Amino acid sequence: MRSYAAGRAALAVVQLAVLSVLVFILTSLLPGDAADLRFTETLSPEQVDRLREQLGLDQPAPERFVHWFSGVLSGDLGTSLISGGPVSSIVRDSVGATLVLTLATLAVVVPLAVALGILMGTRENGRLDRAITSVTLALSAIPDFVIAVVLIAVFSLKLGWLPATWIGSSLLASPILLVLPVTVLLGRTVCLLSRQVRAGTITALNAEYVVQARRLGIPRRRLLLRHVLPNAAVPGVQELARTGDTLLGGVLVVEAIFAIPGFATALVDGVETRDIPTVQGLTLVLAVAALLINLVADLVCNRLVPRTELLR
To answer: How many other C-beta atoms lie within 10 A of the C-beta of residue 36?
Structure first.
């Protein structure tokens, strides 16, 4: 287990280095810069050139990358070209809402997907299995923004039961603000995970050791919890890692739709103003989060079923 964890951690470091290069290249390809977009109406071309020099935007790309990456290694994400403050402060200010939304979604997704998956798997090809499978397939085909628009139209505009946005509201004062965003994020993620848990449950129930345990008279509850669930959860955990990027992307879309002051707002503002250090810092944090999700999922799978290490 330790050697496997060390190998995965080393691979994650290499992936992070590659991602850092890609993040810098892609953000550098954005047309224009902060000087062009922010100050061309008030400054002359000569003054804009001097400003670009002050901001370091006139330096060659390799030199800017070395300066930025050396700062990242020391924990410094750079300085915002617009506000003049550290990018780490922008990350800290915007990460709260995004983190709450993500954790709230995971807290509902995981137990719900496991319960539905086991329920379908233990009733393979039954009416309940076919009904839940049909619903999950239909939901997984609907984009998040469509679900969000429908929910807002029904529960906010028509019925008036739930708030449509977070504007002028505080999450601590109104936890009900999470209902619609979390519901939107649940749709596709629960569908994908529950189907994987279902497949794992069916495979585990047909395994020879489970069949023999039934013959020995082991109670069904104990059989499911101690023998079937750990093996059935592995495909679900792996699918959760694969959908981690999708979940993070869904969180950004939901934040934009419901006007949640999180990563999406800060990222869109940074792109619009060509605040490259802010965009780079936020994108890098999202990339690190995706890497950590995949790393933790692999370690959990290896812990649940140690033989998976031998199959890699």
So the answer is: 14
Rounded Cα distance, 115 and 15, in Å: 34
Considering only CA atoms, which of 279, 295, 273 is closest in space to residue 94?
279
Closest CA to 65 of 25, 117, 97: 25
Please compute the mean of the pLDDT values over residues 80-99 and round it to a whole number.
81
> Whole-angstrom Cα distance, residue 27 to residue 198?
41
Whether 35 and 57 have beta carbons less than 8 Å apart is answered as yes
Alpha carbons 144 and 186: distance in angstroms, whole number: 9
Residue 79's SS3 state is strand
Average pLDDT, the chain: 75
Helix (H, G, I), strand (E, B) or coil at 86: strand
Encode 92-120 in three state secondary structure: HHHHHHHHHHHHHHHHHHHHHHHHHHHHH
How far apart are alpha carbons 159 and 170 in whole angstroms?
A: 22
DSSP conformation class of 260 = -
Residues in CB range of 178: below 8 A, 6 or more apart: 100, 101, 104, 171
Residue 250: enclosing H or E segment and its boundaries?
A: helix 244-257
Structure tokens at 95: 């990460």
- The answer to whether residue 146 scores a pLDDT higher than 60 is yes
Counted residue by residue, the chain has a size of 312
| DSSP state letter for 125 | T
Give the Cα separation of 108 and 302 in Å (integer).
Answer: 24
Q: What is the DSSP string of 62-96?
A: HHHHHHHHHHHHTT---B-TTT-SBHHHHHHHHHH
- How confident is the model over 254-277, as pLDDT tens digits? 887 887 888 878 888 887 777 778
Torsion angle of C-alpha atoms 24, 29, 31, 35, degrees rounded to 10: 30
The values of phi and psi at residue 29, to 5°, are: -80, -5
Q: Which domains are delineated in the chain?
A: 89-265 (1.10.3720.10)
Q: Quick one: CA dihedral 124, 125, 130, 136, positive or negative?
A: positive
Lookup: tokens for 260: 């949640």
